[in-house]
Design goal:
heterotetramer, A: alpha/beta, Rossmann fold, five-stranded parallel β-sheet, two-stranded antiparallel sheet, 13 helices, 46% helix, B: alpha/beta, 2 domains, seven-stranded mixed β-sheet, five-stranded mixed β-sheet, 12 helices, binds thiamine diphosphate, binds magnesium ion
């Protein structure tokens, strides 16, 4: 499924229509912010100011397209790869990096942002999304969820169990699978023999959608549709967004060991930002040529500003109190942890 | 058929679930076969009939999925009580338990509490075939963030399960399945001591038996026999295995000067190692004899016809008590061991 | 897919043909033995001479049809429900009951019978079948495997992972799912929202077959076909055999709590033995009426004899040496276990 | 760039895999990213190039599937060596490990051996984000049927991994990931003491440090410092944690009269509890002071910037040694604890 091709030209589709111009512009703007964010975080990682960063450069359309389709009360269940999705969802960009900076595990209050912690154990977040939407429905709230996972993660038993629970309980979850062709060094054909990952939906009695993941308009349209269906009781769905991880798995990765640079070049030509910018220009979605330049420059400046703020705010060291290690293990600090806290305080005094 | 007197542990648990569901609209019970069947041990008997399938229901057959969805529900304010059908069938959920259930509060600096109760019928003694009799407590007690509790009496079963459901921490609620049919005279509802505190089940002066769950009865039986033979054993029921409040245990052993730790699990690396190590450290100057451990053999849980060799009974406990270097009877063999 | 209907009449099928008459007779004979075995074991369980027995009455066609399709070098990976499959596979009937009698965990040497231990942790045997056939192929042996599981077990993550490994590695495994409509007390519609369990194959790029599991001819034909394809490198397959568990889950179960007796009656009319006997009679596969009576009576007598032998051999108590508890934990008995063995010997002397 | 002198633990492990694959056609290596990438820690570096994808390959991303298929392969005579990418990512395989890998030999009365090696890079100290630094040994050591081993030096890493591959029992081979880069002068191939036997890494007379894996270096560092301060510490490296041959440990503590057990894992319910309980029992009459345990805090593994507070270092070990009631300095506070 594709609505905008790599040259920015619209492609007709029988069941889906592209979002309206304002939304197309909004998608582009969010991708631009995401791209700059990825670059900034990558730089910080190279400088050692983040412990690690898993970049999603090249995947901005899949993340932004999925997240912008959420309604105000909906929840996001992201992975470590999805910082751009979090930013688009409204999470404070600096707080999406708390994990990678090593300050704490989750940098934000999940309730405040309707966003679960970035999940590292693969596919384990998917059943959380099922449970949360089940609970919300029971409480009479119209809450859907977007559960994100990679192509590799679909091989895990947890993915299977979550799909199945969602389908049997008919909970409003859309599973957004970013098929970026690689699970670290393992290519998709060593991960599955299925025609597409969207085909997995068949085995759960769900709908599966196979979408050009570098076409933000298509991802947005399909996820919106799937969310609306799910919300209306039509059942959960799998959306496979076919995209590509242009950067290494993380800054610690060595992609030259396992993939051909030509493959990366191939995908760079399909960059989601190129096509959305072309569409905007060709169709004049931001007005005439001059207005367009000005607006795009403003977006660029906004993206730069966000990236700059992130850099600056990360420069100030967060105050990390080692006593906080004991605070939130249990609802109240049990006696043994009180003792350990006292011992640690002694140790720290001695140093 | 006249009802047996008193309340069985199974009935107490059933009543606790009943009362919890009744009193808090956010409580719900699900798992494998907990609906119309009432669970393979009937602990959820009648609940779906009384509260309907919105509150009590059968889920697909997948333990990681059960725990994972319970985590998600708890994130949105429900208090799910989920059943793992048997100890060994909780292992598929191990990642969800260790990497999420135990850690979510800590990961989010307290923003997300997970008031989930994971009910696990555990241990042997019911003639079950393989994978139905594991004592898996040590896997959970070494996992910070989990409360691990196990009742030893029907009254505690009721009270601790109510407390577990009310608790804002995730609770691994280990039910000593062989004691489901043990009865006690008690009026429900009842509230016993807070689950975080060990209790002295029987006072004594000569040695302390430290135990929990299915072995509470066994230890009391041993103490009874010992009393007849003139030896006074104190029995401490740990109840909440983790996080442990070791004050009662320490005080008891300092008083008696001798301790035997008793559990059903294999001894090696079992929870009893923690108890013994801790007693050894905290009571060093009070100990008249080494802290001994009595437990299952260090072998995979045996088939039904051999399980009685594995399971500690009162005799095995008393044999350990006999080895506690009662001065008049024992001498050191020079090897750190003491023989009669 | 069906080749013989419940009245014993052949049903034409475009891609599958029924096995030849000798094989049809063989299937019937094996089912008869299986049925009597189920009855005998059920009786022994009621008498307390088995700790537990999960009967497969009503499922004989699925088990026998699947197993008889195996070649001499092939392996079987059964569950606790599959005693009849083991017996048909050639495992000593008494030894299939060792587990349920409580003497030991597995009563037979898996290598001798090319049969893994009866597996209780659901779906966990499936990946073993994948690994074993992978290994055999690497050693140049033409070994396929039949991995058995129930409808409920397909919900487990382990099922998913095994399907996927088999498909990606292209190992010759046929996953035989006995859909007996219940997982203890949980009906199929609370287990999956898929149109059929065979549809699950799609998500792995495998073939899926949906078969009347009470039609031994059909199960045999489909499993044979799937094994041949898998062997030839055509990939693994899921075969869903639709059948019914006529007896309780085990003798300890209380089915009146969760299912309508009318449902059981419905299925009893579809008993696999009725239809195979009708086919044999109607088509004269065992000769004229008199020859047929004689032959069927002989099969009945053989089945009875096997059941009798089982009862008698189980009457003699097996010698259980508690010291054997320590023997096969490790390749050699480690010092700590030697000590425990000595302590246990002391305990036993004292008693 | 001149190569650093000696062999790193990572190189030793790589060479061990290399030699094992070369010498036995039944050995094969698979898991996540162990092929062209050479593993995220490069322990399988170069192996696929040398031996081809029939012997070394990447599997689908599913740990239970990896262990389950390895079990099946071992049933048919192969000797798979599989990698779990990090400690916490072995949890999805927990059921396969506990219910099958550990028990298959016993279930089949010895008919089916499972010579599988499960390589698990474990522990912290590398600045990893959550779920990348668990010390999960206690989960395995309490599971009869598994051999659980962990090397503390490059030479042992080579030798023990070779032995693990040759061993007919399933081996959980725990690799102290923070020591992958620790170097030692050694000529490979080398065979050290059999892995089942603990070794004295450094002789001493005043107290014994009992440790393993990543803490061997730490203990040796502590012993070095103590020596400079006039206190002679013996360091015992346990190596094979289960099944444990406790003779060397017992003999050492009986000689020195004092013991500190050191590991990285959280103390509560950790493997150190077994060591401490066992020493307390076997060395009771020889002990001059309680057996102390030094380990990680009883909290979920902390984020990178705080992990140094969790991880025991030589100072924490020495602080424990100081609390071993050296007569001249200490007096009992009447509470079983002793304060200067
Ligand atoms: C259960 C589990 N196993 C292994 C890992 C280690 N790991 C981290 S990312 C990754 C690859 C994931 O690939 P994919 O799902 O395609 O997501 P991507 O990184 O491409 O976004 C692996 C193996 C993990 N995080 N969790
Ligand atoms: C991992 C696991 N969870 C739970 C159980 C308990 N249990 C035993 S049989 C069963 C139902 C299985 O149903 P199905 O797969 O349909 O097989 P059937 O018994 O109908 O043959 C359950 C839940 C188990 N054996 N293993
Ligand atoms: Mg990927
Ligand atoms: Mg079934």
């Amino acid at each position: 499924m594709r609505l905008v091709d790599r040259h920015g030209r619209r492609v007709g589709h029988s069941s889906f229509t592209a979002p309206d111009p304002a939304r197309l512009v909004e998608l582009h703007r969010a991708m631009l912010i995401g791209r700059r964010f990825n670059q900034q975080a990558g730089t910080l990682a190279r400088q050692g100011r983040l412990a690690v960063y898993p970049s999603s450069t090249g995947q901005e359309a899949a993340q932004v397209g999925g997240v912008l389709a959420l309604s105000d009360q909906d929840w996001l269940f992201p992975t470590y790869r999805d910082s751009v999705a979090l930013v688009a969802h409204g999470v404070d960009p600096v707080r999406t990096l708390t994990l990678f900076r090593g300050d704490w595990h989750c940098g934000y209050d999940p309730h405040r942002y309707r966003c679960a912690p970035q999940c590292t154990p693969l596919a384990t977040n998917a059943s959380h999304a099922v449970g949360l939407t089940y609970a919300a429905r029971r409480k009479g709230r119209d809450v859907a969820a977007l559960a994100m996972m990679g192509d590799g993660a679909t091989s895990e038993g947890d993915a299977h169990e979550a799909y199945n629970f969602a389908a049997v309980w008919n909970t409003p979850v859309v599973f957004l699978v970013q098929n970026n062709h690689w699970a670290i060094s393992v290519p998709l054909h060593r991960q599955t023999a299925a025609p597409t990952l969207a085909h997995k939906a068949v085995g759960y009695g769900m709908k599966g959608y196979h979408v050009d993941g570098n076409d933000a308009a298509a991802v947005y349209a399909v996820v919106s549709h799937a969310l609306a269906e799910a919300r209306a009781g039509g059942g959960p769905a799998i959306v496979e967004a076919v995209t590509y991880r242009v950067d290494p798995h993380t800054n610690a990765d060595a992609p030259q060991r396992y993939r051909d640079p030509a493959e990366v070049e191939h995908w760079k030509e399909r960059d989601p930002l190129i096509r959305s910018e072309r569409l905007i220009r060709d169709e004049g979605l931001l007005g005439d040529a001059e207005e367009t330049e000005r607006a795009l420059a403003a977006f660029g400046a906004e993206a730069d500003a966000i990236a700059d703020t992130v850099r600056e705010r990360l420069a100030g060291a967060e105050e990390l109190d080692p006593r906080s290690l004991f605070t939130d293990v249990y609802a109240t600090v049990p006696p043994l942890l009180e003792q350990e806290r006292a011992v640690l305080a002694d140790e720290l005094r001695e140093v | 058929m006249a009802a047996a007197p008193g309340v069985s542990m199974g009935e107490a648990l059933n009543r606790a679930l009943h009362d919890a569901i009744e009193q808090d609209p956010d409580v719900l019970v699900y798992g494998e076969d907990v609906g119309p069947l009432g669970g393979v041990f009937r602990i959820t008997d009648g609940l779906i009939g009384e509260f309907g399938p919105e509150r009590v229901f059968d889920s697909p057959l997948a333990e990681a999925g059960i725990v994972g969805t319970a985590i998600g529900m708890a994130m949105y304010g429900l208090r799910p009580v989920v059943e793992m059908q048997f100890d060994a069938f909780a292992y598929p959920a191990f990642e969800q338990v260790v990497s999420h259930l135990a850690k979510m509060r800590n990961r989010t600096r307290g923003a997300v509490a997970l008031p989930v109760v994971l009910r696990v019928p555990y241990g042997g003694g019911i003639g079950g075939v393989e994978h139905h009799s594991d004592s898996s407590e040590a896997y959970y007690t070494h996992t910070p963030g989990l409360r691990v509790v196990t009742p030893g009496t029907p009254a505690d079963a009721y009270s601790m399960l109510r407390e577990a459901v009310e608790c804002d921490d995730p609770v691994v609620f280990l039910e000593p399945k062989r004691r489901y049919w043990s009865r006690q005279e008690v009026d429900l509802p009842v509230r016993t001591e807070p689950m975080a505190t060990p209790v002295v089940r029987r006072p004594g002066t000569d040695a302390t038996l430290v135990t929990y769950g299915p072995m509470v009865e066994t230890a009391l039986e041993a103490a009874e026999t010992a009393a007849a033979e003139g030896r006074s054993l104190e029995v401490v029921d740990v109840r909440q295995l983790a996080p442990l409040d070791d004050g009662v245990v320490t005080a008891s052993v300092r008083r008696t000067g001798r301790a035997v730790v008793v559990h059903e699990a294999s001894v090696f690396g079992g929870y009893g190692a923690e108890l013994a190590a801790r007693i050894g450290e905290r009571c060093f100057h009070y100990l008249e004899a080494p802290v001994l451990r009595v437990g299952g053999l260090d072998v995979p849980y045996p088939p039904p016809k051999l399980e009685h060799h594995h399971l500690p009974d009162a005799n095995r406990v008393l044999a350990a008590v006999d080895r506690l270097q009662w001065e008049s009877e024992w001498t050191d063999d020079g090897e750190g061991r003491v023989r009669p």
